[in-house]
Design brief:
single chain; about 850 residues; alpha/beta; Chitobiase, domain 2; TIM Barrel; Methane Monooxygenase Hydroxylase, Chain G, domain 1; eight-stranded mixed sheet
Length: about 850
């Protein structure tokens, strides 16, 4: 065993250290700089973030080698160096440029670009140097941290406890020029922090302040910068002190070069949810119609305070926190009022910011009722960025139409991987598949959303993988495609924990996301929040124990997932176990226990109805054990590393969720519990009187010069889908004989009709004038048109987001004498994704979202 662990450790230490930017080795040679002996040189007059990056690089080299490295501002007398500086702000960089030793022509004047290059004899007495030159202050920092990451210091070294492998010596060489980031403003929103980030900060990490303050934000901003982000929307719930209530917080953000932005309901950086900011007793009603003067005074003071720093300003006038605009007004009056508010806010910006208004970063977020007002005629100034929003469950509601794509302010995206709201919160685990994130962000990017991306990450933990994927996409979106995006997180884990586990990581992540796709762990209580009383109660799931191994297969798959995560955790070297537990093992094992808790409670109820009291007692105990196991997993998480994350991990109840509770079970005293076989039944995988298509097994694919069809891996109920064109391609009539399509062969069917059920992803039209149409036909019959246009918060929409699927059914006559039949799935409004197709001719039995396809 010891030899095996040593082999694993060797793989761990050889899997990470090559990037596009810097070549790393552990032996000397021509053109290599030995970091263990090099001094780090920066200019005292450079930007604060450039100086901070230089000092952090020195600390990172010490983390790797154990050697104390000097970061200094005075010239060296001899030896090797790392020279760090911003063009126009560093005398060292500017001197190299003047002497013709450093060509900066490709990046000068650019946005967040950098050069990392080996230069021989840059100064008298310096034999060789790695030079990091940034086009601006963040460009310099990104170049520096690319060295840190290459030598083995993960951006997540602190937030996810990724270990640093010791090296006696580290040699680097480089010749790299970065491109402009794909997205200009890239950041995260800490939100719904009541049950994780806030108690952790106030009771543990920053308890001297009893709040989320500058100490916490320093760690957050360092993480963002190391991940090549540049923007933060601070926590803003009422439980947390407002960001500006702690004066050092804004200074800390600026020291790390991080812009501050705010959510859709915080105009001009003003958090009206905070009683420190807005107190009804002191300030009156938050009503622009009746209290405009007081509101404008507050906003004026905030911009005056914040103007010396970099910010992205939200133009808005919603209600308190996440409520709609206050006041009894018609839609027309609301449009007029919001227009006036935007005009007033821009006047404040012009008053305090010494640059043309069109150069001040401004956003308008058409979120909830603000979207209705925008579509009712609200005029937003052309240089303001329109930030489009998903429906809080990962599906973008609207994107820029062809006219809006011409706006000088371009567009952006506010996207959720965590949410507090109806029909149900999901604040606990990260279950957004990378392929869905890519698909949604790609159609946004393709329609001009390249100015501003903000990700709602809840408490940051345990969203590490989603945050990494998001920032990597935002930095270089063209690196991603449908073929590689599903491999991204497994590749990242392999870089941290070792290439030997790469295949197991991929399987584990695929199973984890697939199982949560049809129902997130937080949704397994089947209750709906903020709904009718009978729907707000915990109830049995719709997974079937009787049919098609619906519940049995789910439990078995989750058990295997949990066992695999536990086995990998056990073989990890000790130093790597906290990181693996936080990012991988805890989500996998806890999601299994949540499903076990509710499905075993359901089995308890079903067995009682069948008078199997002994089996029901066993199922009740299994449910209780699962409930206890979740608490044990949480306790383990919160006690890691001597309690570093104590109070961070909890089953966030939101304001009215019940999934965290123990469901009702019945235990009959005096009856000995008898274990029930809940393993999948082989005969239940055999379909009779129905069929499920293997979407990969199409007999033909008909495309056109302007429409591309493709099979997507890593998404959907069976983890493969078909995409009927890409969203930005032209609309086609699905009834046309030459419309692009996939065709599938069905065998002989002893019936004169079939009902076809098509499960699609619950997309919205990308903009007005487009829809979500697709076509279905059997044996070249008249094409049935599927179209999904649910109104947000309608019962139909709630069902769709909870199951990640919209359902379309159509009945087709067939000839029972035919030996085979053809089913066509046809493009209409391009971009529609089909994830499951069930064909029924009388034998289909009830399940949650149809029988599973076992096609490979």
């Amino acid at each position: 065993m010891k030899q095996i662990l040593m082999s694993l450790l060797l793989l761990l230490t050889t899997s990470l250290y090559a990037t596009d930017v810097v070549t790393v080795s552990y032996e000397g040679g021509i053109n290599k700089v030995e970091l263990t002996k090099a001094a780090i040189l920066y200019d005292a007059d450079d930007w604060e973030v450039a100086k901070k990056a230089a000092c952090l690089l020195a600390a990172d080299i010490e983390r790797v080698t154990g050697n104390s490295i000097v970061a200094q501002t005075t010239a060296l007398q001899n030896g090797e160096a790392v020279i760090v500086g911003t063009i126009g702000h560093s005398r060292w960089i500017d001197w190299l440029v003047e002497e013709g030793k450093l060509d900066i022509s490709t990046i000068q004047g650019g946005w967040e670009r950098f050069i990392v290059r080996t230069i021989e004899h840059p100064f008298d007495g310096v034999k060789r140097a790695i030079v990091v030159a940034g086009s601006d202050r963040r460009g310099t920092a990104y170049g520096v941290f690319s060295i840190s990451e290459a030598i083995g210091v993960s951006p997540w070294y602190w937030w996810a406890d990724v270990p640093v492998v010791h090296r006696d010596a580290v040699f680097v060489e480089a010749n790299y020029v970065s491109d402009t980031p794909s997205i200009k403003y890239r950041g995260i929103f800490i939100n719904d922090e009541d049950w994780g980030m806030k108690p952790w900060a106030s009771k543990n990490f920053e308890k001297e302040l009893n709040d989320i303050g500058p100490k916490t934000y320093a760690k957050v901003c360092e993480l963002i910068l190391r991940l090549k982000g540049n923007m933060l929307a601070p926590a803003m719930h009422t439980c947390t002190g407002a960001f500006y209530s702690h004066p050092d917080s804004k200074k800390v953000a600026d020291e790390y070069g991080i812009l501050i932005t705010t959510s859709h309901c915080e105009p001009l950086l003003f958090n009206n949810a905070s009683t420190w900011e807005w107190n009804k007793g002191r300030d009156g009603e938050w009503n622009y119609k009746t209290n405009r003067k007081t509101i404008l005074k507050k906003l004026d003071n905030r911009v005056k305070e914040a103007a010396p720093y970099e910010n992205v300003y939200t133009l808005a006038m919603r209600g308190l926190h996440d409520e709609g605009m206050r006041g009894d007004m018609s839609e027309e009056e609301k449009v007029e009022m919001l227009s006036q508010a935007i005009t007033d806010q821009r006047k404040i910006l012009k008053k305090y910011i010494d640059k043309p208004l069109e150069e001040v970063p401004q956003i308008f977020v058409p979120y909830k009722e603000a979207l209705e007002l925008y579509e009712a005629g609200l005029k937003v100034p052309d240089e303001v960025t329109l930030v489009w929003v998903d429906d809080n469950y990962g599906y973008l509601k609207r994107l820029s139409n062809p006219d809006e794509q011409k706006r000088t302010g371009r567009a952006g995206v506010y996207y959720h991987t965590s949410y507090l709201g109806a029909p149900h919160d999901y604040l606990w685990l990260n279950t957004t598949p990378p392929v869905l994130m890519y698909e949604e962000l790609k159609k946004a990017y393709d329609t001009g959303a390249d100015r501003y991306w903000l990700l709602n990450v809840g408490d940051i933990k345990p969203m590490e993988l989603a945050v990494t994927t998001f920032f990597d996409m935002a930095w270089d979106f063209d690196r991603f495609d449908y073929q590689n995006v599903n491999r991204h997180q497994a590749d990242y884990l392999a870089g941290v924990f070792g290439l030997t586990f790469r295949g197991e990581f991929q399987t584990l992540l695929d199973d984890y996301y697939r199982l949560a796709w049809s129902r997130k762990p937080e949704f397994m209580g089947w209750e709906r929040e903020w709904d009718a009383p009978h729907l707000e109660k915990l109830s049995d799931t719709e997974y079937s124990f009787a049919n098609y191994n619906d519940a049995r297969g789910r439990l078995a798959d989750y058990r295997l997932l949990s066992d695999k995560a536990k086995r990998l955790l056990d073989v990890m070297p000790k130093a790597y176990r906290p990181a693996f537990y936080e990012m991988v093992a805890y989500p996998a094992m806890a999601s299994y226990q949540m499903n076990r808790k509710f499905l075993m409670a359901q089995l308890n109820h079903e067995l009682l109805k069948q008078n199997d009291v002994a089996g029901a007692n066993w199922a009740a105990r299994e449910s209780e054990l699962a409930f206890d196991s979740i608490q044990a997993l949480n306790d383990c998480y919160n006690s890691l590393l001597d309690g570093k994350w104590n109070y961070m991990m909890e089953l966030a109840p939101g304001w009215c969720a019940k999934y965290q509770n123990m469901p009702d079970v019945t235990f009959t005293e005096g009856v000995v519990a008898q274990e029930v076989d809940i393993n999948p039944l082989p005969n239940e995988d055999v379909l009779q009187g129905c069929a499920v298509l293997d979407l990969a097994d199409y007999t033909s694919k008909t495309e056109s010069a302007i429409h591309s069809l493709q099979l997507l891996e890593g998404l959907g109920y069976d983890w493969r889908c078909i995409q009927l064109g890409e969203a930005t391609q032209p609309v086609v009539d699905p009834r046309a004989k030459d419309a692009p399509r996939f065709e599938y062969e069905l065998g002989k069917i002893d019936a004169d009709s079939v009902e076809v059920t098509v499960y699609t992803l619950p997309f919205f039209p990308i903009y007005e004038g487009r829809s979500t149409r697709f076509g279905v036909s059997v044996d070249q019959s008249e094409v049935a048109i599927g179209e999904n246009l649910p109104k947000e918060y309608s019962p139909e929409w709630k069902t769709q987001v909870l199951q990640n699927g919209a359902v379309f059914k159509a009945l087709f006559p067939i000839d029972p004498m035919k030996e085979k039949h053809t089913l066509a799935l046809i493009c209409g409004d391009p971009g529609m994704i089909v994830q499951r197709v069930v064909v029924d001719w009388g034998g289909l039995k009830k399940t949650y979202v149809g029988p599973r396809s076992y096609g490979k």
